[in-house]
What we know:
- By secondary structure, the chain is α/β, with parallel strands linked by helices.
- The chain is built from 11 helices and 13 strands.
Amino acid sequence: MSFLTGLLQLLPPETAHNFTIQLTKYGSSLLGSAFQDQSLHTNVRGLNFKNPLGIAAGFDKNAELIDPLLKIGFGFVECGTVTPMPQFGNTQPRVFRLKKDNAIINRLGFNNKGEKRFVKNLISAKKSGIVGSNIGPNKDSKNFIDDYLKIYRKISISCDYVTINVSSPNTEALRDLQRKEYLEVLLRELSQIRDEETIRKLIMLKIDPDNTNDHYSMIINLVNKYNIDGIIATNTSLSRPEILRDLNKKREGGLSGAPIKDLSDKVLKFLYRETNQELILIGVGGVCSALDAYNKIKLGASLVQLYTSLTYCGPQLINEILIDLVKLIKDDGFTNISEAVGADNR
Length: 346
């Protein structure tokens, strides 16, 4: 942990986040150059990634940090979650550190500046890497599905892929959209809109880690039926593992960080085995080191994302993971990261 990261830990979590946004926006040039190695380059459905490590949605909610985040080493950036209209989210305080557990609990509730600002930032970014947009509905919307369709039309043209977030636990009734009768309507409508586009964009579905294999099988069937390109496994968890030690474990919201790694890995492992390598899988949840990222790749993830560990370790963690990933690949006899995808799960 750097001195600056340590200072940020003394601030309230949301204050520290807002300060970090400004530091990233205006101070990325001071952070040094990003590590690159040919063995980390990977192509996923026609998209070329400098490396498989991305920043998960939730950090850059308004697509204002795309270029700095790519500059400091991320292979891709997923912005959002963005909603059609600006919204404040849930009442504060709504972010809680679990320092003893390297975890965070948040109940932010899709706080963001809305689709118009988001699209403006997307268009103005230079985008020297892959950019995804994570979309959701406004919490007071009368029709969640209409919100997804509306915002998809607005942003898909300006990014490389779109993530449908139906798994945040912090918007009331949002996870109900993972039920078959609602999810089928949403995916069918989205696929129809996507098929009308001149340039076909990838669509990813972000799911929760708290369900059954039967539930995930249903999701896989619908994803295949409507030609959705992949699944992000997973969002934050409503579970509270017994290993949690910090007093903040009793807070309401979604748990992220090291304690949900095994839970997310279990879902990822199931998805890979059930999808016959036909879907893009992005592993997220508890990535704190190169070994965590590599294990997700060997379970079947073509790409991985992190966020919580960045808040504890600082931006130097990015290059540390990338450098160590190269070593792990070579130790296993691979020449490229793509060769390791699913190696432990075939």
